[in-house]
Every structure is written in C-alpha cells, then in structure tokens.
Request: fold
Amino acid sequence: MNKINLIDELHKRKLIFHITNEIKFKELLNKNVVSLYCGFDPTEESLHIGHLLPLMMLKRFQLAGHKPIVLIGGATSLIGDPSFKKKERFLSKESVIDKWTVKITKQISFFLDFNCGTNSALILNNNSWFKKINILSFLRDIGKHFSINTMINREAIKKRIQRVEQGISFTEFSYNLLQAYDFFILNKKHQVSLQIGGSDQWGNISSGMHLIHRLSKREAYGLTVPLLMQNNGMKFGKTESGTIWLDPKKTSPYKFYQFWMNIDDANVYYFLKLFTFMDLKEIKRREQNKNINNQIIYDKALLAKKITSLVHGEKNLLAAERITNVLFFKNIEDIKISDLQQLKKDGIPVLEVYKMKDLQEALVFSSLSKSRTQAKNMILSHSISINTKKITNKNHVFNENDKLFNQYTLISRGKKNHCLIFWKRMI
Reply:
C-alpha cells in the first residue's frame, strides 16, 4: 500500500463508513506526510476487539508513510462519551483511570512503530492540556462556537434525550465539546489534519472539524470505520460469556483465537479484508475456492492465526493452536502446563476438586451427563475420553496417570464437549 492508492484500497476493503471532502483529502495524502489521530478513553483496564479496526486503520496509514497519533483520553474518560449509550457510564476515579491508562498505552504500543523516522507513532494524553484549562475561558472561547440546536439534533444525543427515564446529564452533553477541543489542539500543536474513529464518533469528529475551521480557518478531515454487529444482533466482540478483551489476562489467547474460529462463515472473507493486510487478490481467490475441499475452514483458521499473532504475538498464537489441537484433534503430546492454565481460566468448563470418586461421578458433576446411569452408558458407547484417550471401563477410577502435570485431567464427551478437572492440593 502507498500514498497514491491508500483511500482506494480502504474503500475496496470496505473500511470507510464516512469520509469528508474525499477528493481534496486524497490530494493532500498524495503530496504530504499527513498526521492523523484516533482517541481511546481508558474507561476499562483493557481495550477489546471492537477497538481493533481503528487501531489497524492507524497502522495502515503508517505503512503508507503517514504519522499516526494515539490520544489517550485521560481527561475525557472522567466524563464519559454518551454516543449511542443507553445510559450514563459509571464514572471511575482519576487514580483508577491513571492505572488503566498505563495498561492501555502498553497494549496500543504493540500495534504501531514508534521508531521509524518522520512518521513514527506518538502517544499523547489529553489530560496534559485539560488540567491546565480554566472553565470560564473554555466556555467563553470554545463553547461560544457551538449551537445547542445543532448539538441536540445529533443522532447520538437525540436518542438519549428521547429516553425520558434516562435522559442525558450536562456532564455527558459536554463531551462533544471536549473531543472537538482535542482535535483543535492536535491540529494546532501537531499539525493533525485527520481524525478517525468508529462510525458512532461522526458527530464528535464533525464538531472538531467545525471548531478548527472557526478558530484557525484551516481545513480538517474526518474518516470513520464501520461498527460491526454479529448476525445474532450482538455487538461485535461480545459473546454469551462476555467481552473479548485484548488483555491476555482478561481473555486468554486461546479464547481469543476461538472467537475468530467461531465467526459466521459469511463473514470470513469480509473480515480477512478488514482485519488483515493480505492482498485483496489473494482474498478474492480464496473466496472463489471456499467450497473446494472445505477451503473456508482453513481460511477461517488463517484469519484466527493472523489476528491472534498481531494482538498476542507468535508465542501465544502457538499456545492457542496447541490447545485447539488437543481439544479438537486429540493431539496432547505437546501440551504445556501454561496451556492448561489458559484452559482453566476461560477456555472450557472447570471442575475444581480435592478428590473424585470415579469417572461417572466426574461426568455428572461436570454436567457432561445428567446421571450416573447416563454416564455409564456414555462410557460403554466409547463417547468418553480422558486426556484424549478413550475410556471403556464403566467403573474407571481416577489414578495418578490420569493427571497431567500432577494437577489437570481433561474429560471429553465426543468432539466438542469438554471439562477440565483441576485437582486441588490438600494444605
């Protein structure tokens, strides 16, 4: 990808939802190194996969020779963005925000190059200017450029106002001005001419462009990426068991990998365009052959591999693949204790015990069977495995040979139902 075809490439990948003054912006990109920014409010201790598209958009611009700036919302996170939120976000203490800022900064550092010359990435925190600002000066010098009529007619604000039981506080209402001021400061001090974000940020981005034009008479640009929803109507990155986080301590690399392995088949090639840097011709070729020899399954694994490697690194990718090979392909020889620790955290159901009478009891307590009678029949029908080995003795009693690393036992019913027994040690 280069400066000349960057925007065309983004369109082909369906990465652009909104873009302002596209023809003029393309001319600017082709002539200059453009500084652009995306903001991330540390309202949690980790980013989640809903943040991946904006992060990867920054990376795409950097690979094309432009300068990405990440703005950590140390100040704005104390307010909370109301955009398309059903109710006001819980406001965290400043000390907590500071801790989360450190963690999120570390996560973001993994995606961009901070030592590549003129277009090296930069991370800033808007608390560095908001903590110095005077409330009266802000209202007089910034607030006067915004019309309440315009602000309340923005879709995100209008929806909240129409919810009588929730409404919107003045605190949240002011967020739009704060983000607009961020864009103005970055434009003034760092020559940032483009803000990117999710499509739900369009109103905030537009306000920033408006403020820059009013105060500096400069032209600024906005670009948003699509917000993704799953076929079940659930927000992308959410599962029945919760959010898929980028922090491996909150979502293990194995569970992260499995999220991508379990996406709907209809999204595989769309997501390869969005979340990888694969050549578009190669993606198209694979899509054309998706029904030949189950090619789509291999392409789904390729997607999971590329994104897991990008977010968690090669070592954690290999661990996720090892666990997958154990659970689905019965290859347990290479399993490591760290892999089993991942499984214990969030990979599969876990049964923690000091002792267990026999396999039938374990099947009942793990909910792999409804009764001892059903458990016995499962064993006799060769449906049950311990550490991937079929068990045929209906009266099987656990022994030390059943314990991996003296602490773990993997019970499986068929190919897709598993439980990990963690043998607690007597103190």
Notes: The CA atoms of residues 56 and 275 lie 7 Å apart. The two ends are 60 Å apart (CA to CA). The longest strand covers residues 192-198.
